[in-house]
């Protein structure tokens, strides 16, 4: 039996596509990370970053923590920091949906909005570290991010597919999910193919980025990704709607992007078991017009 909310992080379900996947020789499984208590895959990384940092003595209840986020990591950090009684400021692009801002504030975090996208949010956070002594969680360079998925997401997928997984598909933002899961799955079988998902040039898909070189996450290791597929904003948006309407899976655009890539991949295979990450829930996108 769980003893705290934190015990509910992880062990999310896998569900098989019954409508969208039309290749009967391929199983397409969606891993529903919206079932985490904070509503996204980022609960895993946030918990591991905070717990490990506290154990090492990197910070304590007197520290001023700060993090730049596009949304889901911020919600997870706000929830977990609140449980531990930590002081945290979360910096987001001003175009973030109001549901995300309100959720972070509900958990007790200070939220600061910046005008220049996630890059601007990262620059702001780094300036406060330099000038005001704040401590940044730094999900883009913090090894506790990807290690969360090495310890949990990867083992869960291997166990729940009985080692039959042939392809893992994940959108790439901080790249923590794909780095940690790839590391674990490749240790079990080098034949498992790891497929990363990026937006096409000009597409804006919350949670998926094609980073400029100077902002490329330091935890990213290109050798751990076998193939990168690009999806457009329109494809990701339309697939998020189809996931909800046809499979009953309510999620955001980045999950729609991953599903688009997974379905494209399924069409090319003679057999296999694909696992695609559904990284969050759709309710935090209602004000964005995604489902209008």
TrEMBL record:
Its cofactor is pyridoxal 5'-phosphate. SUPFAM superfamilies: Tryptophan synthase beta subunit-like PLP-dependent enzymes. Pathway: Amino-acid biosynthesis; L-cysteine biosynthesis; L-cysteine from L-serine: step 2/2. This is Cysteine synthase. Keywords: Amino-acid biosynthesis, Cysteine biosynthesis, Pyridoxal phosphate, Transferase. It catalyses: O-acetyl-L-serine + hydrogen sulfide = L-cysteine + acetate. GO terms for biological process: cysteine biosynthetic process from serine. The modification N6-(pyridoxal phosphate)lysine is found at residue 42. It holds the Pfam family PALP. The lineage of its organism: Bacteria, Pseudomonadati, Bacteroidota, Flavobacteriia, Flavobacteriales. Pyridoxal 5'-phosphate binds at residues 72, 173-177, 254. It comes from Maribacter algarum (ex Zhang et al. 2020). Belongs to the cysteine synthase/cystathionine beta-synthase family. Residues 7-280 form the Tryptophan synthase beta chain-like PALP domain. InterPro entries: Cys_synth (IPR005856), Cys_Synth/Cystath_Beta-Synth (IPR050214), CysM (IPR005858), P-phosphate_BS (IPR001216), TrpB-like_PALP (IPR001926), TrpB-like_PALP_sf (IPR036052). The keyword Protease does not apply. Its EC number is 2.5.1.47. The keyword Transferase applies. GO terms for molecular function: cysteine synthase activity. It is an enzyme of class 2 (transferase).
